[in-house]
Design a protein that fits this description.
The chain is 37% helix and 23% strand. It is α+β, with helices and mostly antiparallel strands.
C-alpha cells in the first residue's frame, strides 16, 4: 500500500491529478455560469416570472372570450406554485386589454385563493400605509449557489488528496526506532549503527532498522525517505517474498528489499534469500524474476540504486528456524539496517 502511495506522489501523477481538479472547476464555471444549459419545451412553471405573467394574462383573456372553464383550469394547473402570486399581481396591475374584473372572474373559476382586498389594490398596501406595494421577496440564485457548493466540494477533495499523499505523517528516523527494534529482537544485542560506516563518510539522509520475527505473517515494513528540509524523496522497505512448507506460522525463506525514487520510473528490488533458497536452483530461478538474488549472511551488505538515491542494506542479525523443513531454509529472526544516501 505504501509503495502504491509512493507511486502516486510522483510529479507526473500529481500534475495529472491537479489538472483533473482544475478541469472540474473550469468545467463547472463554464457549464453553470458562462454557458449554462439551454432548456427547450420547458413547462410554464420553469419560465421566468415575466413570461409566466404574460402566459397567465393571455389565459385570462382567452377565458373572457371563450368562457371555457375546463381550458382555464388546465392552464391554471400549469402555473405551479407561483400562480397565486402572479395572478394577484395581475389583479393589482392589469396590463392593457385586461381589467381586474376579468382577473377576479378567472380566479373564481379556477378557485385561486387570492389575498383579500379591493379590486385594483396592490396586496400589502394596507400594511404599508398606502405608500405602495411591498417589494417582492428576493429569490436566491440557484445556479450560483450550486456552482459555489460544487467548487468548494472539489477544492476540499483536492486538499484532502494533497494532505493524504503529500503531507501525511512521516515515519520516524532510525534514532526513534532503535528501542522498539531492539525489544522486538527478543534479546538480540543492539548494534551501534553510527559506527558501521567509515570515518569521514557523509552520514545517510535516513537510516532505519527493519526487524522480522517468526510469526509475523503480514510482515511488510516501509519507510519514508525525506531530505533534511523535509522534502519527500521516495520510500524504501522490506517485505515477505517467499515462504516454504505449510501450516502456521508461515516459514519465510526470502524477503524483498526495495527502493522507490520519486524521480525514477521504477522500483528497484533485490531478494534476500535463505541459504536453502539461494542454493536451490528452482527457487532461485523463480525468485530471480522479482529481483537480484542475495544470500543472507550476518554482516552482509548489498546496494540498491535508482536515478537519484542509493540504499545500502546490511544484515545486522539473523537466525534460522528449526524444524522438519530443510536446514537453513526459513528465518526465525532477521534485522536489516537500511541507509540511504543521495546519489552523486
Amino acid at each position: 500500500m505504501d509503495r502504491i502511495r509512493g507511486q502516486i506522489t510522483q510529479p507526473v501523477l500529481i500534475g495529472a491529478g491537479a489538472g483533473v481538479v482544475l478541469g472540474l472547476i473550469i468545467g463547472l464555471i463554464f457549464g453553470w455560469g458562462i454557458w449554462p444549459v439551454q432548456w427547450e419545451n420547458a413547462g410554464i412553471q420553469h419560465l421566468r416570472p415575466d413570461l409566466q405573467s404574460d402566459y397567465l394574462a393571455m389565459s385570462i383573456q382567452n377565458f373572457t372570450l371563450s368562457n371555457d372553464v375546463r381550458m382555464a383550469q388546465q392552464r391554471w394547473s400549469e402555473m405551479g406554485e407561483n400562480g397565486v402570486e402572479i395572478l394577484a399581481d395581475l389583479r393589482a396591475n392589469p396590463p392593457a386589454g385586461l381589467d381586474a374584473v376579468a382577473v377576479n372572474n378567472f380566479a373564481t373559476v379556477v378557485q385561486a385563493d387570492l389575498p383579500s382586498g379591493q379590486v385594483g389594490e396592490v396586496p400589502g398596501d394596507a400594511e404599508a400605509g398606502g405608500e405602495g406595494a411591498a417589494p417582492a421577496p428576493a429569490r436566491s440564485n440557484t445556479l450560483t449557489t450550486v456552482l459555489v457548493v460544487m467548487c468548494l466540494i472539489t477544492l476540499g477533495f483536492g486538499a484532502f488528496l494533497a494532505y493524504l499523499f503529500l503531507f501525511r505523517n512521516r515515519r520516524p528516523a532510525i534514532a526513534a526506532n532503535r528501542g522498539s527494534a531492539s525489544a522486538a529482537m527478543g534479546g538480540v544485542q543492539p548494534v551501534d549503527i553510527d559506527s558501521t560506516y567509515p570515518e569521514g563518510q557523509e552520514p545517510p539522509i535516513v537510516q532505519y532498522l527493519a526487524t522480522y520475527n517468526l510469526g509475523n505473517d503480514l510482515y511488510d515494513d516501509s519507510f519514508s525517505i525525506d531530505s533534511a528540509s523535509g522534502e519527500f524523496l521516495g520510500e524504501c522497505g522490506v517485505g515477505i517474498s517467499e515462504t516454504i512448507g505449510v501450516g502456521d506460522p508461515k516459514k519465510v525463506t526470502a524477503f524483498e528489499v526495495w527502493l522507490f525514487d520519486k524521480n525514477d520510473i521504477q522500483t528497484v528490488t533485490k531478494v534476500l534469500m535463505s541459504e536453502h533458497a539461494f542454493n536451490d536452483p528452482a527457487i532461485n530461478q523463480r525468485l530471480a524474476s522479482k529481483g537480484e538474488p542475495v544470500l543472507a549472511e550476518p554482516g552482509k551488505r548489498f546496494v540498491l540504486e535508482t536515478a537519484t538515491l542509493q540504499l545500502e542494506a546490511r544484515v545486522v542479525n539473523m537466525n534460522y528456524g528449526q524444524g522438519a523443513l530443510p536446514e537453513n531454509s526459513f528465518f526465525e529472526q532477521v534485522t536489516l539496517e537500511l541507509a540511504v544516501w543521495p546519489k552523486v
